Amino acid sequence: MTIRWGILGLGRAGRARAKAIAADERCELVCAWRGDATGLTVDAVDSAEAVFDQVDAVAVCTPDHTHPRLVRRALQAGKHVVCEFPLAGNARVARELFHLADAQERVLHVEHIELLTPVARWLRAHVRPRDICAGSMRFRTKVRPEVFSVAHANVARLHRIFDVSGEPRRFVITHASLTELAGTFRLSGEAFLEFHFEMEPGAERKLEMTLDLGRRGMVLLMGRTLMFKGGPVALPPAKPLFAADHDAAMAAILHGAPTYVDRSRVLSVLGLADRLDAAAQELIDDKIGKPAIG
Questions:
Q1: Four-point Cα dihedral 238, 81, 107, 261, nearest 10
Q2: 265 belongs to a structural domain
Q3: How far apart are CA 115 and CA 164, in angstroms?
Q4: What is the mean pLDDT of the chain?
């Protein structure tokens, strides 16, 4: 069975997705809407509907704020959908989209290739949530006008850390502004994780994470460099990430295999971002100068 694919958005991610699809003998890359098709063997069409009319599955690779609308239209047209992370800007809309996929009996696969990197795989294999005594995550990136809260701009980071630590029981926000969010997550037992997210005009992406595993030692991640017990970790070479994600999506479409990004985690992380944003907004609006607790 050949799966005919269309792509919405041929930016960097969309072009990488197109190459992964084109390399798969089980697939035919038929058409694309929006973006630069130069160098790709694909027909460029003038609307999303023109894509839906010709394909079995759609990859949504457009800017984040357009995801819900395009995913909904693709599902309503009866297509399987792969959507770049994040699926939606809040948990309510994401839940509606999953329910629509179920009603249409179609796969809705949420891509999050950060979870497929050698670093993420090593952390899942070597860090047990119960071993974490304390930790921290700091992330800085440029301002994104299409994202209206610091919490929602960082759902990928929230998902990434809780992929390792498990989800928090509660949080305390110690600082909030329109471009910055800081506080502490309470994990299982007495463990805690401090977080600091900030957005600055023109800033380069910078990620730092520490995990104190007590007697087992300290994990330090700075960008793509992973350290454990004071020394660098030798990581295996990575399979091209979009190819790995595409294989996971095809397994779900052809064989009903579970996706590596579990829908319950998608919803819980978005729900946490919703609560963080509400608490941060209360702190900003009231200017009370004391921690907001969630």
A1: 40
A2: no
A3: 10
A4: 94
Last residue of a domain, one of 62, 93, 111: 111
CA angle 262, 153, 11 (to 5 degrees): 80
How far is the C-alpha of 24 from the C-alpha of 15, rounded, in Å? 15
The CATH number given to whatever domain includes residue 180 is 3.30.360.10
- Those residues with Cβ within 8 angstroms of residue 147's Cβ, 6 or more apart along the chain or in another chain: 64, 65, 89, 153
Looking at the structure, do residues 85 and 27 belong to the same domain, yes or no? yes
Please name the residue that has the structure tokens 């919703």: 274
What would the pLDDT profile of 26-62 be if each residue is shown by its tens digit? Answer: 999 999 999 988 889 999 999 999 999 999 999 999 9
Q: What would the pLDDT profile of 65-76 be if each residue is shown by its tens digit? A: 999 999 999 999
**Of 280, 292, 288, residue with least CA distance to 181:** 280
Domain stops at, among 111, 143, 166: 111
> Around Cβ 169, how many Cβ atoms within 10 Å?
11
256 in a structural domain: no
Answer yes or no: are the C-beta atoms of 40 and 22 closer than 8 Å.
Answer: yes
Q: Supply the range of the domain harboring residue 103.
A: 3-111
> How many domains, in total, are found in the chain?
2
- Using the predicted structure, report yes or no on whether residue 294 has a pLDDT greater than 70: no
